[in-house]
Design brief:
With about 180 residues, this protein is of the alpha+beta class. The chain has one domain: NADH Oxidase. The chain has a four-stranded antiparallel β-sheet. It is globular, with a radius of gyration of 17 Å.
Length: about 180
């Protein structure tokens, strides 16, 4: 059985993906792992939007690139064919923390399935724009949602990076 602690130590952000779409079953397992993330008072005040449509994925990448200030030909999702966007209820006090835990669970799940992932920011800025609020409305999603992050997922191209040495002096014990 694959140890959670092993997955935590081995998982790395991937910055190069093959164009092959992950299996839907794998994406469903990744989303499910996100649904089981710890959350404030059991509120479950997060949602996930799975984007496998290339045209929409590329449109989101262009907007993310524009917000980030990169050249038009840069892909902020590093070629990942699937993106899971995590949003959280703006009116819930722990929404940023809850959404962050969803992202962490999904990235660990992706790693355990042999997939790579990377957390890409700027979902907050995207979902403050009317265009992206309209996307939510079109999906029947009501309320005030804050974009927490994009979990870009795919098959890693090349070797998985090694962990950098851990910095000293980050743990303090009171016994």
């Amino acid at each position: 059985m694959y140890s959670v602690i092993e997955a935590i130590k081995e998982r790395r952000s991937i910055r190069g993906f093959k164009p092959d779409m992950p299996k839907k079953d794998d994406l469903e397992q990744i989303v499910e792992a996100g649904l089981y993330a710890a959350n404030g008072r059991g509120k479950q005040a997060t949602i996930s939007i799975v984007v496998t449509n290339k045209k929409l994925r590329d449109k989101i990448a262009k907007m993310n690139c524009k917000i980030g200030g990169w050249d038009d030909d840069f892909d902020p999702f590093h070629g990942a064919p699937a993106i899971i966007i995590v949003l959280a209820d703006k009116n819930w006090s722990t929404h940023v923390y809850d959404g962050s835990l969803v992202m962490g669970n999904m990235m660990l799940a992706a790693h355990s399935l042999g997939l790579g992932s990377i957390w890409i920011h700027r979902a907050k800025e995207e979902f403050e724009m009317e265009e992206w609020k309209s996307l939510l409305n079109g999906l029947g999603i009501e309320g005030e949602w804050e974009g927490i992050g994009h979990c870009a997922i795919g098959y890693p191209e090349g070797e998985i990076p090694q962990a950098a040495p851990r910095n000293e002096g980050r743990v303090f014990w009171i016994e």
